[in-house]
Amino acid sequence: MEHTKALWGMLGVVLLLGSMFSVLAAPTADAQLTRIKLPQGSGITTTGPATAIGGTTTYTEHCGDIASCNQALAPNGNSQPKIVYLDNDITGVVGNGIVISRNKIVFDGQGHTITGTSDGQSGDIGISTQFRDAVTIQNIEVTNFDLGVSAEQTSNLQLLNNKINNNNWIGASVGGGSLNNIKILNNEFQYNGYQALVVSPSINIEIRGNFIYQNNAVCDPNYPVRLNTITDSIITENTIKYNNNGIELYNGYNNLIYHNNFILNGYDVNVVGGSDNAFSLPYDSQNPKNGGGNHWALIGGGYCTDLYDGPDVPQTTGSPDGICDDGHTNGASDPYAFVYENGWI
Predict the structure, then answer these.
(1) Which of 6, 218, 281, 331 could form a disulfide with 291 if both were Cys (CB 3.0 to 4.6 A apart)?
(2) Mean pLDDT throughout 74-89?
(3) 69 vs 87, 173, 234, 243, CA distance in Å?
């Protein structure tokens, strides 16, 4: 009997040790590696989960103040992609705010706001990154800095679903050094003092679905959207409304600007130098909405007539097609301008 009890005791120890070693074993490629998660808004950086997908691990962290966010957005010895989530608003920021100093990073504000205390004299920046690659800034509101977002010399940059409003100088400044692949999608730029968006020399830029409203009130001659020496880029589905001016395209080459709403701006477009830029798709006889240019609503009138259809400019035969019969020539040549806002939808 005593011998049997001893055998059962040894078997129990073996089973216990086996279960412990299975817990401590290296995780498989599909494992979730989660560390202790502290309460959101604690201002302490937390880590987890890290998910391996297709052989590439993406790490996640949460942060709640400037110091913890900057730590989470800094290099940490590995080059794997990372997502950092902001868990609460950050208000009363003195000086500069968030600094992104690593590559392959997503900073997701989860709808929260970073608010500065800038007075228009010090050049404080809400979110900045420089000389980086593969940076995404999304779902965040940046307000009351001198410069809302600065992403200079950064390739494969994405600004997605942000609200960049009420900054003293510029909403967002990106590009530089003929960098590639910048996407500025579905953002809101409102009430920025000098300019909403400045793009420095870059190639392959997509500016789509942004709402640009009442910017450059401080300095009338500025254009709220300045595109400086961009090439092979698309600007589409944006609404540029009630600004002192609209877009300045400076030394641009082979860019396509179509299906945008220009509404009651002081001067919608100024093209300086460059070549091979187009403000319209070809006319689509089957469905004019699939082609065409932009909608232009000018201060003091200048609205177009629509009596005819067809690819000829001016249109002189047929029936109304939603396209201005005489096109648009004020600041930009748009042969197939739309009569109505969002006329391509």
Answers:
(1) 281
(2) 93
(3) 10, 21, 33, 34
Question: Measured between alpha carbons, how far is 294 from 281 in angstroms, rounded to an integer?
Answer: 9
Spatial distance between the Cα atoms of 30 and 33, rounded to a whole number of angstroms: 9
For 225-252, the three-class secondary structure string (H helix, E strand, C coil) is EEEECEECCEEECCEEECCCCCEEEECC
Please name which of 73, 138, 82 lies closest in space to residue 111, comparing C-alpha atoms: 138
The pLDDT mean for the chain works out to 87
Report whether 255 contacts 228 (CB < 8 A): no
Q: How far apart are the C-alpha atoms of 163 and 171, rounded to whole Å?
A: 9
Q: Does residue 224 contact residue 195 with C-beta atoms inside 8 Å?
A: yes
What predicted TM-score, i.e. pTM, was given to this entire model? 0.85
Which of 267-293 are b and which e, b meaning 16 or more Cβ less than 10 Å from the residue's Cβ?
bbbebeebeebbbbbebeeeebbebbb
How far apart are the C-alpha atoms of 154 and 180, rounded to whole Å? 8
Q: How far apart are the first and last CA of the chain?
A: 86
